[in-house]
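Moderator note: this is an archived Q&A kept for reference. The question asked for a predicted structure of one protein chain; the sequence and the answer are reproduced below.
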Amino acid sequence: MNIKKNDTVKVIAGNYKGKIGKVLKVFREEERVLVEGVNIVKKHVRKSPKYPQGGIIEMEAPIHVSNVMLVCPKCGQATRVGHATLTSADGKRSKMRVCKKCGEMF
C-alpha cells in the first residue's frame, strides 16, 4: 500500500469522487483508509461520558484504498506512485516514493 497517514489523497470513485482530503488512519489488513471529510455516515450513539447527549452523530467511515489516489506535494496533481532506493554515504538504504508525473521524491 502506497498511502500513509497524513498524506493528501483525491477520491477517484464513488459518491465523493473529486474530493481531496487528508488521510486520518490507514487500515492495512482491510486495505482501507479513513479520509477527512469523505464518506460521512450517521451513527446512533447511546449516552456515555464521551457523548453525554447521545443521539445521532456524523462521522467518517473508511473507504477502499483503490478508490483514492495520492496527490503529489510538489505538482499538486493526483498521481501514481513509483519507488526508488536511495543509498546514503554510510551505506544505509532507504526506499522513497516517487511521483510518476513530475519525478519528485517524497
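Archived answer notes: The radius of gyration is 18 Å.
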